[in-house]
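FAQ: What does a ligand-bound record look like?

Like this one, built around DGJ:
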Amino acid sequence: MIFYNESTREFHLQAKNVSYIFTVLRNNQLGHLYYGKKLRHRDSFDHLHKEKPRSNTSSVFEGDESFSLDVQKQEFPSYGTTDYREPAYQILQSNGSRITNLEYKSHKIYKGKKPLEGLPATYVEDENEASTLEISLYDKLIDVEILLSYTVFEAYNAITRSVQFVNHGQEEVSLTRALSASVDFFDSDYEMVQLSGSWSRERHIKQRKLVPGMQSISSARGASGTQQNPFLALKRPAADEHQGEVYGFSFVYSGNFLAQVEVDQYDVSRMMMGINPFDFNWLLESGESFQAPEVVMVYSDKGLNDMSQTYHELYRKRLARGKWRDKERPVLTNNWEGTYFDFDEQKILEIAGASKELGVELFVLDDGWFGKRDDDTTSLGDWFVDKRKLPNGVTGLAKQVNELGMDFGLWFEPEMVSKKSELYSAHPEWVIHVPERSLSHGRNQYVLDFSRKEVVDYIYRSMAEILSKAPISYVKWDMNRYMTEIFSVDLPASRQRELPHRYILGVYELYERLTSDFPDVLFESCASGGARFDPGMLHYAPQTWTSDDTDAVERLKIQYGTSLVYPVSSIGAHVSDVPNHQVGRITSLDTRANVAYFGAFGYELDVTKMSEEDRDKVKHQIRFYKENRRLILNGTFYRLESPFAGDGNVTSWMVVSEDKREALVGRYQILSLPNTGFKRILLQGLDKELEYSIEGLKGTFFGDELMYAGIQLDQFPDEIRATDFSSQIFKLSAK
Ligand code: DGJ
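The answer part, i.e. the structure of the complex:
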């Protein structure tokens, strides 16, 4: 529901259990009044609004001594009049001025939600699922309009926001800052939760108490990156996984971003999120507009799990798209860690054949099938088959894999080029670089200038050629380096700082064309593991390769952290060989599978080299996953015990079916401990009244017992807990 109080000029956005209220201030700019637990609607919220300056140093408006933005909570703040905090936007005018006065002009409220042109965004399937408020702000001196859009999803505690800047004037202006959302919170008694990491240890949960001044996370790498994920949450210090107030902010974007919280002198906390203003500038010529990407705000008064569940459901059902959105994902074998670049058709068919016998449904051929790519120094951009390795081409191989009774998938890295390639020889100017300066590389590769239409067109044609000829049902879209020497020989000087955003728009365009022209293909995004695991990518590819680190112990933190925002169905999770290729650790095949079950499951090893005994285990694992994947991929996910808490020795999580009649619990213990007390796992999300049996355990248990008294772990055989890296899976079924 969206209400407008005409006499007080107030907007009240109500989602399932949340209210978001703002008003038109006396100076005609927008002031923020409230964001939190649902309030009943009333004719006026004026009592939530205070105006008088609180300090002698506050600057006040000309002709109005009592009015200062310094003490106002604002809705979409500007800098340069009386507010000294960082603004949501800045518009540079031809005379050098950055001062603007964007006043409320009009608004409209309608059912449904419009798509954002060229950008990923949440959507509705039926216009009754959501209502949208569009507010027009207008600066009459420079003839510039800002359109703020808010969508309230009726069935979720979610409000989405985006912003459009339109230059109606004759003169050009520049956006030096164009964030997508800003919220001024009443106080600063919050902890900021973020997902930070690096290659191989992506999305670890970090939290810090807010302090006066600025705290921020960002990316300036040309991709969202592993270092920080485009997400932050503000939670009350006492809030935890299961209770307390949490505000999540997630940015539907895959490029440079900024998320920051500024705590001001009055303990007001200003949260902002959008495209990173660092090294950004967007020229708006007369008549042009700029669309900033979407921010998804989720509120919960029931802790982090509840916030995550809202994101999971919304992103699974109303951000991801296409045929694979709701389909059970195939169990796959990927040959990367099994062979790296060293394979030929025969080897691949052996692995595929052996995988088929184990129950695998999809074989994925990873890097190394094109050009002359025997290592990572060559051939990116040359998307034609290497006949030395695959004499019958991709089509011939794919058909043979199909004949084995499996689907076939293929790896691409569309955005990159190697210097040793035909593409680079033909078009060195297609690379992002500064002429006459040295050019850094990452993994011997260079970033194609996806701001250029002809580059995107060329890569589209190369990929479409293969996808239309070979029976390919899955594409792994990799991206293995960040940008450097950011410059396009195709853009004028005044638009160089637009390049990173234009590049991402080019990536989205290619995704859009390929996903709509090949609607049956399941796309999995990837970026050196999880360097672009963000909501933007999920709009096109419903699953993402979570991390190159497939060690079962490392994966606990990675998958636990990732689940803060991203649904289990999006988390690519594979069983790989031991000693693990990233950390050298040896964990049991059981534990590796018990971790990987909670994701889009597969194997990443040479199954032909496995022992008979291990092969039998794998058969059993695949059967188990297939039996349970509907529950795993569509159920409600609960984090129970955190690898980030205490000594991190125990992690547990579970997934519960929508009707609560089935559940699957995973418990993992890193080090075996001597002579400990008895342990239990307190479950979540069950039906108190239902009587459940647990596979392998005697008797039955009521939902309330399992949630309040827990599963008592002394009921299990000693050998399970007597080794390091142990794990248990509990399957619950209601009678
Ligand atoms: C990085 C990916 O994360 C890996 O899974 C693999 O596809 C390699 N690239 C191939 O170069």
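Follow-up question: can I read anything off the structure? Yes, for example: The domain at 2-318 is CATH 2.70.98.60 (Beta-galactosidase; Chain A, domain 5).
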